[in-house]
Amino acid sequence: MATPLKSRVAIPRIRDNKIDGVKYNRSSSKRNNFEMFAWLGMRLSGVLLVVLIFGHLFVNLMVGEGIHAIDFGFVGGKWANPFWQVWDSLLLWLAMLHGTNGIRVVIDDYAEKDRVRVWLKIILFLASAFVLLVGTLTIFTFDPCPSGAASHLLPSFCAAR
Predict the structure, then answer these.
(1) I need a labelling partner for 126 at 20 to 30 A (CA). Which of 63, 76, 107, 132 fits?
(2) Rounded mean pLDDT of 33-41?
(3) Measuring CA to CA, which residue among 95, 117, 3, 105 is closest to residue 49?
(4) Pairing of strands 22-23, 18-19
(5) Is 108 helix (H, G, I), strand (E, B) or coil?
(6) How far is residue 92's CA from residue 136's CA, in Å, rounded to a whole number?
(7) Dihedral, CA atoms, 91, 93, 99, 100, nearest 10 degrees?
(8) What is the distance, to the nearest Å, from the Cα of residue 79 to the centroid of all Cα atoms in its chain?
(9) What is the CATH code for 30-144?
(10) What are the helix (H) ranges across 22-81?
(11) 115 exposed, middle or buried (CB, 10 Å; 0-12, 13-18, 19+)?
(12) d(CA 58, CA 82)
């Protein structure tokens, strides 16, 4: 009867803080906590995004006249309601944070040089911050009926004001 072959690879013991002669710290909590929260945030934002996106699609494409009703006046009327402002801003923020975190992980995985990785992340975070800023300002400061505009250029619901 043949005896099983013994592995020649040494498996580090639990109490050793070295793998192949390199010391490591088991409790590097800051980085691990960030990655854990980023992982958890991706899952939670993904679930919330599914609800927000399907609600958005249902209201915009199925209710009323459907896609034929979407125009400047439709968006203006929708954003006149604080509920839809909050809904669309949540959709914007969660989608941008979810996508930014996903691209951050791709950069970490594929950018080999530290300098390139840092610059790609800086560009990513600046672009994301810019989109969030402009999008949030657009949602909450959008006025479809600006004062002093010619009445024939305004949507029909502006005359009721």
Answers:
(1) 76
(2) 90
(3) 95
(4) antiparallel
(5) helix
(6) 8
(7) 180
(8) 21
(9) 1.20.1300.10
(10) 29-61, 72-78
(11) exposed
(12) 19
C-alpha distances out from residue 87 to 78, 99, 128, Å: 11, 18, 19
Query: How far apart, in whole angstroms, are the C-alpha atoms of residue 20 and residue 160?
Result: 76
Q: How is residue 77 written in tokens?
A: 């009327």
User: Number of helices and strands (H, E) in the chain?
Assistant: 4, 2
Q: What is the spatial distance between Cα 151 and Cα 156, in angstroms, rounded to a whole number?
A: 9
Q: Compute φ and ψ for 149, nearest 5 degrees.
A: -80, 150
What's the mean pLDDT in 92-119? Answer: 95
DSSP string over 136-157: HHHHHH--SS-TT--GGGS-GG
Model confidence, pTM: 0.73
Reply yes or no on whether the pLDDT at 17 is more than 60: no
List the one residue out of 85, 88, 96, 105 whose CA is nearest residue 129.
96
